[in-house]
Amino acid sequence: MRPKIVEPIVETVLALLLCGILIGPGIIIWQGFKWLQLGQWISIPVSSVLIEFDIPYPDTKWSGIQTIMEWILDFPLSLTFFFLSFALYGSVLLAYEGSNERKRSASK
C-alpha cells in the first residue's frame, strides 16, 4: 500500500506544472506589451535561452541534422515552453491516473 504522503506530492507537482503552462502565454503577453510600447514585435527564439545561459550553440557535421537543429532553435520560445509544459503535465497526469487505475484493479 502506498503512503498517504504521495498524493499531496503528486498534486503539488501537477500544480507547479500547471503554473509552468502559463509561462508560454506570459511571454506572449510581455511581447505584446513591448509591441504596444515600442511599435515593434520582439521575437524571442529558443536560441535566446542558449545565449542567456552561455550554452554553446550546437554544431554538427551532418548538414541535415544541423538544419533541423537550427529550425528548432528558431522556433518561438513561448510556444515551445507552452507545448513542452503541457506535454509534461499530461505525461505526469496520465502516469498518476494509470498508477491509480492499477491500484484499483489490484484491490478488486
Furnish the topology, listing elements before pairings.
Layout: H1 6-21, H2 23-38, H3 47-52, H4 63-73, H5 77-107
Helix pairs in contact: 1-5, 2-5
Give a written overview of the molecule.
- By secondary structure, the chain is mainly alpha-helical.
- It has one domain (6-107).
- The protein is built from five helices and no strands.
- The protein has helices spanning 6-21, 23-38, 47-52, 63-73, 77-107.
- It is flat, with a radius of gyration of 20 Å.
- The relative contact order is 0.15.
- The model has no long low-confidence stretch (mean pLDDT 84).
Helix count, DSSP H or I runs of 4 or more residues? 5
Helix content: over 70%
Mean pLDDT over the full residue set: 84
> What is the domain tally?
1
For the termini, the CA-CA separation is 14 Å
The largest sheet is: none
Q: Return residue spans where pLDDT drops below 50 for at least 5 consecutive residues.
A: none
Please report the total strand number as a whole number: 0
Beta-strand fraction estimate: under 5%
Q: Radius of gyration from the CA trace?
A: 20 Å
Write the element-wise H/E pattern from the N-terminal end onward: HHHHH
- What general form does the structure show? flat
Derived from helix and strand composition plus strand pairing, the structural class reads mainly alpha
